[in-house]
C-alpha cells in the first residue's frame, strides 16, 4: 500500500464523482416531479384512484393501497402486498403523482407475474445488506489487526453484493416504468401528451437508480485500488 493512503488519497475522486452523480440525479427528479405536480390530469383521478384502477385492470385485488408520510417515499411492499403512496402522490390528481403511483403498480404486477429480476432482487436484499454492513469491518480487521489479505478480499467480495443488487435493480425499475406508461395509456387514465410528460417524470426517477449503481461501482473500484493489490498472506 503506497504512502498516499496515509497522506493524500487520490481515489477520493471516485467517491466525489459518485456523490455528484447522486446529487444531480436527485435534483433532476425533484425538479421534474415538482414541475409536473402542477399539471392536473384531465381524468381528475388521484394517485390512489389511478393505482386502484390499474391493479384491478391487471386482475389484482389482494394488494392494499396506503398513504405513507414523506416526499417521494412511494414503494411496493411484496411481503405484505401493500402499495404505499406518499402524501404528494396519494391524494394528488397531477400527472406526476399518477405516474409515480402507476410505477409502483408496475412492481405489484411484476410480483404477480413472478418477474425474474424482481425475485432475484428480493432474494439479494438480505445478502446485500449484510455484505455492505460487514465489508468494511472485515477490511479494517484484515488491514490493521491481522494483516490478512484473505479477510480483505472477503470484505471486498461482500461489498460487491451491494453492487450486484444495484445492477439487478436497474431492469426492475425500468420495466416497472414501462409497464406504468403502457397501463396508463391502456386504461385511459392519461391522454395524449400527458403520457409523454409523465414519462419524463419516470425517466428522471430512473436516473436516481442509475446514479446509485454508478456510485456503488465507483466505491467498489476504490476498494480494489486501495486494498486489492496488496500481497497475499504468507
Based on secondary structure, the structural category is mainly alpha
- In total, the number of strands is 3
H/E element order: HHEEEHHHHH
Please bin the fraction of helical residues. 55-70%
Q: What is the end-to-end distance? A: 16 Å
Tell the overall outline: elongated
Looking across the biggest beta sheet, what order are the strands in?
1-3-2
The whole-number mean of residue pLDDT values reads 92
* Biggest sheet details: 3 strands, mixed
Radius of gyration of CA atoms, rounded to a whole number: 21 Å
SS element count, helices: 7
- Strand fraction band? 5-15%
- When the domains are counted, the total is 1
Model regions low in confidence, pLDDT < 50 over at least 5 residues: 1-6
What would your notes on this structure say?
With 234 residues, the protein is mainly alpha-helical. It has one domain (3-227). It has seven helices and three strands. The chain has helices spanning 12-36, 47-57, 87-90, 95-112, 116-145, 149-187, 193-227, and strands at residues 64-68, 75-77, 82-86. Strands 1-3-2 form a three-stranded mixed beta sheet. The longest helix is centred in the C-terminal third of the chain and has 39 residues, at 149-187. The two termini are 16 Å apart. The relative contact order is 0.17.
